[in-house]
Write the structure tokens for this entry.
Amino acid sequence: MTDYSEQISRTLKEFFGYDNFKGGQEDVISHLLGGGDAFVLMPTGGGKSLCYQLPALIKEGTAIVISPLIALMKNQVDVLRGFVSGNESIAHFLNSSLSRQQIDDVRADLVAGKTKILYVAPESLTKEENVAILKEIKVSFYAIDEAHCISEWGHDFRPEYRRIRSFIDTIGRAPIIALTATATPKVQSDILKNLGIQDAAVFKSSFNRPNLYYEVRPKDDPEKDIVKFIKSNPGKSGIIYCLSRKKVEEMAEFLCINNIKALPYHAGLDAKVRADNQDAFLMEEVDVIVATIAFGMGIDKPDVRFVIHYDIPKSIESYYQETGRAGRDGEEGICIAYYNYKDVQKLEKFMQGKPISEQEITRQLLSEVVAYAESGQCRRKLLLNYFGEDYPKDNCGACDNCLHPKRSFDGRKQMQLVLKLILSLPEHFKIEHLACILAGVENSMVKSYKHDELDLFGAGEDHDEKYWCAVIHQGLVHHLLGKEIESYGLIYATPEGEAFAKSPTQLMLVEDVKFKAADKNDDEDEEDAMAAAALKGGGGGDPVLLSALKDLRKDLSRRLKLQPWILFGDPALEDMSILYPETIEELQRCQGVGEGKARKYGEEFIKLIKKYVEENEIERPDDFVVKTPPSKSSNKQFIITSIDRQLDLEDIASMRDLDMDELLSEIEAIVSTGFKLNLNYYIKETIDEEIVEEIYDYFRNEASSDSLEDAIKALSGDCEEMEIRLVRIQFLCEIAL
């Protein structure tokens, strides 16, 4: 067997400029050069790329690197070519972005033996012409990057990845190395089995990134919070992840309006625009890239100082990998995620119509995300535990829960009750099911198994099912409980758990974080309750001014015989208490205040604010002003013109390739900026007059806000949601703008 140790050291120094390897890199490289298959589990920033780049330069032939990230291919090829001046043939990529002439050039270099490493998109392997090219060359080995894409339990499953082994057999077998930054035991098992390398050597590095700070924030006005955060960290590079392409575009525009250099990045952009935006970020021409969660950026930028998740990701794997792009140089990395359970419900809705097995997997992955977000435990401990690694300390000192510890309690009785239930059942069940039994929740699943007849049904009814879910999750962290990897997350008692059930000892558990507003005091009227809520935890404004503004709103609403919210909503008043607007133009910067509303109702509010500012010698915080775009709708002008022409709404939606729900969302966005539309022509044609009057009466006399959700609850049974939305829009345009 050839000893490559001297070549490895020399190549590391001469080609990559390093004196020493990081972690287990050298062991992986030596194993691969020796002809063995390998599975490498190494966190982002751990140096996975070197594990196949260095042996590719030493080994005879061309290494085929299969990667799903076109952006990463270009980035790594540029880096490799930069190491050897004037030798662009040393590395190439083969994907859909190349022209016919470029593909011919790549083939020529491959056949001539000039190329040591070739990056290939998995989709490219489905093209016979590309497979034919690869069959002409000597392949040194195959590297499957982002190997978690093979598994349906992975966070970025791609069907074409499951066909890689058959392509390898067609091209010609050579050693295989599979690499990923995120893989649970279940995902690892899937990868090895699918690639047919169950006997591969497994190399695992610690998942702990001690330089990263983790925090989960409630999703209350996240745009304003993000602007303040970025402005308090001037000149630092960061990534913001959003769930949809539309939100990516909106967020990038929003940041630019607030004088933050930002660009969007998602799969829907033209390839050149996407590449240019990435280069601008890498070259530090912009500070922030806004990207979709589903479309990984795959950038290799060591000094990303913050990663923000505007939307909660679909799995812990996604979250870990995306946060891993922060602080790859070992320096500061701040990871902030905004959480609202409504976002989780939205993701669950997307599952409708998909195969049952896929829905089960997605629900399980989402439940892990919810547990992480709502947990009061050390976030580092939770993340590492998810990937099968223990974190020895109780307090990491670098997450929100450790810096602001939640209340802990001796949970030995609770854990004993959980174990007693699990050990009494002949089968294993999921966390949620066990929690519902203990909390006494009679849902269809519990009844179908007749678990509502168990002695332990409702044994923990003094707490809800979320509480019991938290206890069970902490049982997993303490290794008293285990999760079956070959099934959909079924829970069982470990030997340690069985011993604990017989002889319990002190077990300190942590209360979960509460992501909901406090309940309204029954003694307060609606207006006072809103004021109290704002004063307790609102938008960080001036509480004395806010109280005065609410008093003025109440007085003016009585004089005009209108509901208070019709004048200005709570968010608008909170903004006034922060921004201290003194002109009609400044007033329009506040949330939900258009020009019409500002001129109709704003004069008295401006006078009050001016007087308050003068009397208290307040210096107005101009830097606190968060500007919003005039409209988030790219279809704005078309929709306005079409409604002016009284076109049928279904026709307008069809012409812009929207469904009715999306069109109404666009219209609501236009109206929210203060622009008046007239939908009466459509409403008269499609909705009974009595229903229109009922909805109008609700908003005029009963509603405490313009909340669509509250209206749907109040009018359900009498009116359809679409009818409520349409009439609400018209009401706002006629009365509340």
User: Anything to note?
Assistant: Confidence is low (pLDDT under 50) at residues 516-540. The longest strand covers residues 212-218. The domain at 406-510 is CATH 1.10.10.10 (Arc Repressor Mutant, subunit A).
